[in-house]
Amino acid sequence: EVQLLESGGDLVQPGGSLRLSCAVSGFTFSSYGMHWIRQAPGKGLEWVSAINGGGDSTYYADSVKGRFTISRDNSKNTLFLQMNSLRAEDTAVYYCAKRLSGNHPFDYWGQGTLVTVSS
Amino acid sequence: EIVLTQFPGTLSLSPGERATLSCRASQSVSSSNLAWYQQKPGQAPRLLIYAASSRATGIPDRFSGGGSGTDFTLTISRLEPEDFAVYYCQHYVTLPLTFGGGTKVEIK
Q: Are residues B100 and A44, on separate chains, in Cβ contact within 8 Å?
């Protein structure tokens, strides 16, 4: 059974940092690109970042470029999102998600972890 | 970036009624690249439709998708109580991946 489990969400002050993790099981992690998607309270979905299976290609939304870093540890089946210089507008539930390939939608999502940026 | 606009924002219907949700793209989108998701409060989105009209595994046949070019639709033929939720369309091939703003289907 495919499972994705996010962790690391917390309350953080503006300008602060946070590292999210997504532990996966049930599939060959290194074979799949992985994504982070976020959802601000009461709002829609926003794609944040992606990384390929080998971890050597990364992609970011303009809204987080230069502040967030996606990475992965294939030996530990874990995806990460390092978030620096956090802003109030980064407050959201952050989901990790997988898909079969670049030509497929997201077939599995985690349950999400809440990041709140506030003083 | 492909901008997806969903309408209406809210659809108020009764169980048993037909729901038609729309998604309009800012530029022509290959039908192979358009998906629909359902999201209930406190839950992650669930894939309903991919390639504009193909149902994902386990999705009931009362859900159907269609359209091409810039205009796509999700139809729920007869609303069941569990179908009241928010629905999102998504373009899923060219980065940045984008989602529509969502349509809430609420009980009238």
A: yes
Give me the residues paired with residue A61 across strands.
none
Q: Are B104 and B11 in contact (CB under 8 A)?
A: yes
Amino acid at A56: D
Task: Report the alpha-carbon distance of residue B63 to residue B20 in Å, rounded.
Answer: 10
Helical segments of B11-65, H only:
none
Structure token pair of residue A117: 């940026």
**Residue B13's beta-bridge partner residues?**
B107
Residue B33: strand, helix, or coil = helix
Interface membership of B62 toward A (CB under 8 Å): no
Residues of B in contact with A34 (CB under 8 A): none
Each residue's pLDDT tens digit, A31-82:
999 999 999 999 999 999 999 999 999 999 999 999 999 999 999 999 999 9
From the list B70, B91, B87, the residue with the least C-alpha distance to B8 is B87
**Per-residue model confidence as pLDDT tens digits over B47-84:** 999 999 999 999 999 999 999 999 999 999 999 999 99
Neighbours of B20 (CB within 10 A): 13
- Subunit contact A46:B99, Cβ cutoff 8 A: yes
Neighbour-count burial for A83-96, b at 16+ CB within 10 Å, e otherwise: beebeeebbbbbbb
Question: How far is it, in rounded angstroms, from Cα B1 to Cα A57?
Answer: 20
